[in-house]
Amino acid sequence: MTDLQDLCFAIAQAQAAQARCLDDDRLEDWPDFFAEDCLYRVTSAENMREGYEASLIFLNSKGMVRDRVSALRTANIYERQAYRHVLGQPSILSREGESVSTETSFMIARIMRDGKTDLFATGRYLDVWLRAGTGVTLVSRVVVCDSSRIDTLLALPL
Amino acid sequence: MTDLQDLCFAIAQAQAAQARCLDDDRLEDWPDFFAEDCLYRVTSAENMREGYEASLIFLNSKGMVRDRVSALRTANIYERQAYRHVLGQPSILSREGESVSTETSFMIARIMRDGKTDLFATGRYLDVWLRAGTGVTLVSRVVVCDSSRIDTLLALPL
Amino acid sequence: MTDLQDLCFAIAQAQAAQARCLDDDRLEDWPDFFAEDCLYRVTSAENMREGYEASLIFLNSKGMVRDRVSALRTANIYERQAYRHVLGQPSILSREGESVSTETSFMIARIMRDGKTDLFATGRYLDVWLRAGTGVTLVSRVVVCDSSRIDTLLALPL
User: Fold this and answer.
1) Chains with ≥3 Cβ pairs under 8 A against A?
2) CB-CB: which of C5, C20, C118 is closest to B91?
3) What is the distance in angstroms between the CA of the first residue and the CA of the last residue of chain B?
4) ipTM of the complex
5) Any idea where the domains of chain A sit in the sequence?
6) Maximum alpha-carbon separation in chain C
7) Which of B13, B101, B154, C131 is most buried per CB count within 10 Å?
8) How deeply is B154 buried, as exposed, middle or buried, from its count of CB atoms within 10 A (0-12, 13-18, 19+)?
9) Cβ contact (<8 Å) for A115 and C147?
């Protein structure tokens, strides 16, 4: 089991680092967690259940991930806010060669400029990771939000 | 320490899988996490403190766990809702042969059909696990809710 | 990577034990997690960003940590309440000899006597740990709350 544990540890560390990157507003570092050919998609549990392709955010290359960050910094207007992610243990769903699929539950609190804090989003990350040295790179992340209410409020990536 | 880490990893994986089973509404798979002779009990911190035996849910065999799931599917009427569990790291409390006791903090968000999300329950799992091959089986889970307000709202197992 | 994993495991176990100590109202045991020469400080993300030294709580020895507990038990008046901590995976930030710095995200729910539960605080622990045998001792903890609203409500340590 040791090898699986190593992998799970590396994934949990990468997930924690990525979440901190968003929570600390270091958005410019966020694309570095992704592989060049990657997918980042935000959808809802209902969309997943019904098989709808609709996404709240859909980025399918590292370039698009970078563009999204630029847009957030320059074009988009939204009230200043911060997130706080808390993630569960990643569950290893499957593994094929150097590629590993995991599912990880999350809760995200949102802190508004005036200090008001609420439970903003809950859901799960469906991730595909590629082993890279002693670490891992994110090939694909589908963020499945439990609630369908989230769309109009979504500024920062989850 | 390695053996303890192996055990802790196996328990955290089992807890995450079990929580996902509830969160994904795959209730029929939930009994499989339990041993044949098992206990599943939901109570409150106040009841525990006062030594009251009262439980909000009390199931003391795998058969009763299965019956509970059937009842939820057929008889009980409750508004459609989903949970999202996020669990802390399991603390190993004690260990005797193949049997291990752990305590694990949890937060559970509840997502109503209309998307409204609230922090539904917090508390801790007092678990007893039996090592089974490279994994673990749940012999006993006492769910201790921090709040005593929870009873009337409780439909799904926590 | 194994040695890093051992360390991370020991830290996560110590953090979980310390959080349970607060959540179970076993405040008298809380100082035992600290080294004799230690720092415990609570501040806000805004204070950190602006470089302000101001702290909501500032304790710079184990004796002061003990005094704080005594004060809570005898002098301070606050409505009875309990916390529930849920922590993310500790991220190892740096390591020098036997000393390790970590950052760990947290959410803390507060449960009032009447059972009312809310998301009380979110933030991150900036910790420095010293390896001690197979375990770790806390040399320094800076609790950085995401919100600046927290001060007037703060009775128990976070």
Assistant:
1) B, C
2) C20
3) 31
4) 0.91
5) 3-145
6) 48
7) B13
8) middle
9) yes
- Local structure of residue A85 (DSSP, 8 states): E
What tokens were used for B7?
A: 């055990």
pTM: 0.94
Beta-carbon contacts of residue A107 (< 8 Å; ≥ 6 apart)? A85, A86, A119, A121, A122, B84, B86, B107, B109, C107
DSSP, collapsed to helix, strand or coil, labels residue C12 as helix
The per-residue pLDDT for range B127-157, each reduced to its tens digit, is 999 998 889 999 999 999 999 887 666 778 8
> Rounded to the nearest 5°, which phi and psi values hold at C50?
-85, -5
CATH 3.10.450.50 is right for the domain spanning B3-145: yes
Beta carbons within 8 Å of A153's beta carbon, 6+ residues apart: A120
Q: Is B72 on the interface with A (CB under 8 A)?
A: no
HEC letters along chain B: CHHHHHHHHHHHHHHHHHHHHHHCCCHHHHHHHEEEEEEEEEEEHHHHHHCCCCCCEEECCHHHHHHHHHHHHHCCCCCCEEEEEEECCCEEEEEECCEEEEEEEEEEEEEECCCCEEEEEEEEEEEEEEEECCEEEEEEEEEEECCCCCHHHCCCCC
Residue C134 · residue C10 · CB < 8 Å:
yes
Read off the tokens for C130.
Answer: 């010293």
What would the pLDDT profile of C91-130 be if each residue is shown by its tens digit? 999 999 899 999 999 999 999 988 899 999 999 999 999 9
Sequence-ordered list of residues with C-beta below 8 angstroms from that of C56, at least 6 positions apart, any chain: C42, C43, C44, C145, C150, C151, C154
The C-alpha atoms of residue B147 and residue C30 are separated, in whole angstroms, by 23
Residues 12-31 of A with CB under 8 A from B: none
Residues of C with Cβ-Cβ distance to B11 under 8 angstroms: none
User: Rounded to whole angstroms, how far apart are CA atoms B95 and B4?
Assistant: 10
pLDDT digits (tens, 9 = 90+) for C46-91: 999 898 888 889 999 999 999 999 988 887 667 778 999 999 999 9
- Which of A47, A44, A45 shows the shortest CA–CA distance to A154? A44
